[in-house]
Amino acid sequence: MRPVLLTSLAGLLALTACSLHPNPRTNPYGIWTGQLITDEGICPTNDVSALHIRGHKIVFTPGMSATVLHGHYTPGRPQYHAELRDKGMDNTPYQQFFDGTPSGNAILGTFLSPRCRAHVTLHPAVIP
Q1: How far is it, in rounded angstroms, from Cα 125 to Cα 33?
Q2: Is residue 14 over pLDDT 80?
Q3: Using CA atoms, how far apart are residues 112 and 128, in angstroms rounded to an integer?
Q4: Is the entire prediction scored with pTM above 0.85?
Q5: Are 63 and 43 in contact (CB under 8 A)?
Q6: Cα 44 versus chain centre, distance
Q7: Which residues fall within 8 angstroms of residue 119, CB to CB, at 6 or more apart?
C-alpha cells in the first residue's frame, strides 16, 4: 500500500510543479530570461536579458545593462512590446524596441537599437 501512496504523491507534486510555470499565452506573469543572439551590429550578448511582466506593465532589460525598456501588456493579446526613447550624447533622439510573441512555453523576441538587431528566446526564470 505504501508504494502506491508514494507514487500518487510524487505524481501530484509533479503536476503541481508543472502548473507553477507561467504560460506565455494565458499566464505570462513573472520573469523571463534568455541570451540575446546578434543578427546585426554590436549587441549586449555577454549577459542574460530579462523580461518582467507584472500586471499590465512590461520591463525589458537587454544584457542586464542599465538600459530599461518599458511597455504595457494586455491580457488575452499575446504580444509584448517595450520601448525606450532617449537622446544620445549629441542630443540626437533615438529609440530602442523589444517585440515578443509566445511560442510554445517560451517567448520569442526581437531587440532593436541604433547599433544592434538581435533575437532572443525567453524562458521562465528559475529562482532557487
Answers
A1: 6
A2: no
A3: 31
A4: no
A5: yes
A6: 15
A7: 36, 37, 39, 108, 109, 110, 111
**Alpha carbon distance 58, 39 (integer Å):** 24
In sequence order, which residues have a C-beta less than 8 Å from that of residue 46 and are 6 or more positions away?
Answer: 63
Count of alpha carbons within 13 angstroms of residue 74, beta-carbon side: 3
**E strand map for the chain:** 30-35, 37-41, 48-54, 57-61, 69-72, 80-87, 93-103, 106-113, 116-124
127 or 33: which carries more pLDDT confidence? 33
CB of 94 closer than 8 Å to CB of 116? no
Q: Which three cell numbers stand for residue 18?
A: 508543472
Domain ranges of the chain: 23-124
Tens of pLDDT along 45-82? 999 999 999 989 999 999 998 999 999 988 888 899 99
Class of domain 23-124: mainly beta
CB burial of 32-47 (b: ≥16 within 10 Å; e: otherwise) equals bbbebeeeeeebbbee
Decide: 21 and 30 in contact? Cβ < 8 Å: no
